Amino acid sequence: MNTILMALIATLGTWSVTALGAATVVFFRKANKKVLNATLGFAAGVMIAASFWSLLAPAVERADKSSSSPAWLVVTLGFLTGALFIWISDKVVTYAQNKTNAKSNEPINLKFRRIIMLVCSITIHNIPEGLAVGVAFGALQDGFTPDALMAAISVAVGIGLQNFPEGAAVSIPLRREGFPRLKSFLYGQASGMVEPVAGVLGALAVIYAEPLLPFALSFAAGAMILVTVHELIPECQSNKEIHPYFSTVGIIIGFSAMMLLDVMLG
């Protein structure tokens, strides 16, 4: 089978798992703030764990093997650039919103700004994951063996399973902000739509994409950490006085679940 087609099928599969994770939002029939704060903490824990286990650690490993520059330099620059990108994006969104609201005399919609940052960070995170799957299947073009095929499938399965909590990490916070369940699901699964595109591009440009992966992985990690620390964690602690450890337990469970998946699946 054509390796590009295989990469497309594999990344369509990882996208479908993202959609399954986003579908967990249907269980939240009523916006119980206590429960949704805990699940928002869970999303924050997932994003922190994914930033290290799924992104930074593989970035260091790949940079050691494929980059002519020191691994610490590539990964640090990528991480800082990702955080800077989200910060600039936030400023652009805020500026555009200020201009729009100045004409209509409406206050700044902080909820909208927070949602844009969240969806943007998870979407950016999915691009290098799609590239990784595409590169794994594209490499089969040079030497197709059963072992190489199983290795590529393992990459796709591992990333797919990790996508389940990531889909929930988008849809659940949106539900908490008052979005309808269907709209929260649609936004959540949409964050994974970039993976099939990135997968095909990775398979097409396997020679060029692989050296860029360390920077892309650390870039996504920087974006996710900035959003988690700046938005998700403060927001999930909004009723800390009433339930001091409820959201914190959610963060711990989310981190543990994502770490378990990453370590088990390699």
The termini sit apart by 26 Å
Shape: globular
Binned, the helix content reads over 70%
Cα radius of gyration in angstroms: 19 Å
Number of domains: 1
- Unreliable stretches: none
β-strand amount: under 5%
* Count of DSSP H/I helices: 9
Provide the residue-averaged pLDDT: 79
Order of helices and strands: HHHHHHHHH
**Tell me about the biggest sheet?**
none
Strand elements, count: 0
- Class of secondary structure makeup: mainly alpha
What does this structure look like?
By secondary structure, the protein is mostly helical. It has one domain (3-23, 55-265). The protein is built from 9 helices and no strands. The two termini are 26 Å apart.
Give the tags.
9 helices; mainly alpha; 266 residues; single chain
Brief characterization of the structure:
The radius of gyration is 19 Å and the shape is globular. The protein has 9 helices and no strands. Helix 1 (3-22) packs parallel to helix 5 (146-176), helix 3 (71-104) packs antiparallel against helix 4 (110-138) and helix 5 runs antiparallel to helix 9 (246-265).
Question: How are the SSEs placed, and which strands pair?
Answer:
Layout: H1 3-22, H2 33-66, H3 71-104, H4 110-138, H5 146-176, H6 181-190, H7 194-204, H8 206-236, H9 246-265
Helix pairs in contact: 1-4, 1-5, 1-6, 1-7, 2-3, 2-5, 2-8, 2-9, 3-4, 3-8, 4-5, 4-7, 4-8, 5-6, 5-9, 7-8
